[in-house]
Specification:
The protein is mainly alpha-helical and about 90 residues long. It has one domain: 434 Repressor (Amino-terminal Domain) (Orthogonal Bundle), CATH 1.10.260.40. It contains 5 helices and no strands. The longest helix is centred in the first third of the chain and has 14 residues.
Length: about 90
């Protein structure tokens, strides 16, 4: 099995985010990172940690395996509802 590069993972996250109708800002807020940090993940310039990856899969309604294996069987399902807690 071929190793998944940061660039490939970033491309898959980008594709799934767009297919689910999220802007970078929306997904970044939902997983509690900055939009520039998410952009760096999507470009393959920044590692995504396991906790961020878990949040990404929850928000986009898929599993880590679906992203890693590039099997987007969840495309017909609407994205999960999420709420963003804002600091006061």
């Amino acid at each position: 099995m071929k190793e998944l590069s940061k660039h490939d993972l970033g491309n898959r996250i980008t594709e799934l985010r767009k297919l689910k109708g999220f802007y970078q800002e929306d997904l970044a807020n939902a997983i509690a990172i900055s939009r520039p940090s998410l952009a760096q993940v999507e470009l393959g310039n920044r590692n995504v940690d396991v906790f961020e990856m878990k949040k990404i899969t929850e928000v986009l309604g898929c599993s880590m395996d679906e992203i890693i294996s590039y099997n987007f069987s969840i495309l017909e399902e609407p994205p999960m509802e999420y709420s963003v807690k804002k600091s006061v």
